[in-house]
Design goal:
There is one protein chain. The protein is an alpha/beta fold and 248 residues long. The protein contains 9 helices and 10 strands. The strands form 3 sheets. Strands 7-6-8-9-10 form a 5-stranded parallel β-sheet. The chain has a 3-stranded antiparallel β-sheet with strand order 2-3-5, with no helix packed on it. The protein has a two-stranded antiparallel sheet with strand order 1-4. The longest helix has 13 residues. The chain is globular. The chain starts with a helix and ends with a helix.
Length: 248
């Protein structure tokens, strides 16, 4: 018994008391761009980006495409790109995920009064992995553990789409998962809404140019929340969904 108590004491507190103020250690989160102009003709960062998330002159990063690999920061001779541990970078529209020197942070998620009124006290989510690598899925699973305990806000995962209010999409939507994704959406009762989680879901990520994708679903239904990352940190999802529902 004494040994067990010593082990528990050495582990410290696992529960995160205030998710809103928590900042992960060692996490590669929201990038910050230096204000100084780039050298004329320099495109070193854009050339090494594996997903074409970066454009130069003026320098901008589209977090919907970014896989947070840090290659751009290593390649930049002026050290203009720095990845911070800041997890808050979700948005409610695609253009809100573009980061520039003049706009160092993504556009904050605006509270949806319609969603807040219906789901602000109780929300059930169903997740679909549409060809993902399981990285995003692992981070979403962590939201239910003792560390993050998303259930404290009345937000829970359900096994059936018929019990779900929101669909959380991960993966680039491979062609063999396109029908399953649509069937899941069709099985959900109204009102319902969509969340895109991770670079693959947002833009196709590293697989955006693959002929094996079928992303027509996203041309028919627009996400209410966009959560960038590869994979996103659980806190990025927490901030995004709480802002969307107006939960403080």
């Amino acid at each position: 018994m004494l040994k067990a108590l010593r082990v528990l004491r050495s582990q410290g507190d696992q529960f995160i008391g205030d998710l809103r103020s928590a900042v992960p250690t060692g996490h590669r989160g929201r990038p910050v761009l230096g204000a100084a102009p780039c050298p004329v003709g320099c495109e070193a960062c854009a050339q090494v980006c594996p997903t074409a998330a970066i454009t130069a002159d003026p320098l901008r990063i589209d977090l919907a495409c970014c896989v947070f690999c840090n290659e751009c920061a290593l390649a930049c001779p002026e050290e203009k790109i720095v990845f911070t541990p800041e997890p808050r970078m979700s948005a409610d529209r695609p253009e809100g995920l573009v980061v520039t020197a003049d706009r160092p942070s993504p556009t904050p998620v605006a509270t949806s009064e319609a969603l807040r009124r219906v789901f602000g006290r109780s929300l059930r989510l169903r997740q679909v992995s549409a060809g993902g690598c399981n990285g995003c899925e692992l981070e979403l699973n962590a939201l239910a553990n003792v560390n993050f305990d998303l259930q404290r806000y009345g937000i829970e995962w359900v096994a059936s789409p018929r019990h779900a209010d929101g669909l959380v999409l991960t993966g680039p939507i491979s062609s063999h998962m396109a029908e399953a994704l649509q069937l899941t959406w069709d099985a959900m009762p109204e009102p319902r809404f969509l969340i895109s989680f991770g670079a693959c879901a947002l833009s196709g990520g590293l697989y955006a140019d693959s002929a094996e994708l079928d992303r027509a679903f996203l041309s028919r239904f627009s996400p209410s929340l966009l959560v960038p990352g590869c994979p996103p940190h659980p806190l990025t999802f927490v901030h995004g969904i709480l802002d969307l529902l107006g939960i403080r």
